[in-house]
Design brief:
17% of the residues lie in helices and 38% in strands. The protein is an alpha+beta fold. A 3-stranded antiparallel beta sheet has the order 3-2-5. The chain has a two-stranded antiparallel sheet with strand order 1-4. It is globular and about 40 Å long.
Length: 86
């Protein structure tokens, strides 16, 4: 069951993560919402970790709000991916 949730969250990453918006100083914001696969409801208090694509190193992390929302501000331009942990 945990594996199904993990796969569902990973799929939602691709759907709900906003693109990195480049600004004058090459930083942006990544926003999204964690949604449960089986319920379709937002997932509260889920750990979200922003990782560098090249070496999977942790850039920063947050916990989703009660509405399942998260955002990372002042993210330098680059390629990233997110991991979720229930």
């Amino acid at each position: 069951m945990k594996i199904n949730r993990w796969c569902a969250l990973l799929g939602f990453i691709l759907m709900f993560v906003a693109a990195l918006d480049a600004q004058e100083n090459n930083v942006g914001t990544i926003r999204g919402t964690a949604i449960g696969d089986s319920t379709g409801h937002p997932l509260e208090f889920v750990n979200v970790v922003l990782r560098a694509k090249g070496d999977s190193s942790i850039v920063t992390g947050k916990v989703t709000s009660h509405a399942g929302k998260f955002d990372f501000g002042n993210v330098p331009a680059g390629e990233y991916f997110l991991t979720f942990n229930l």
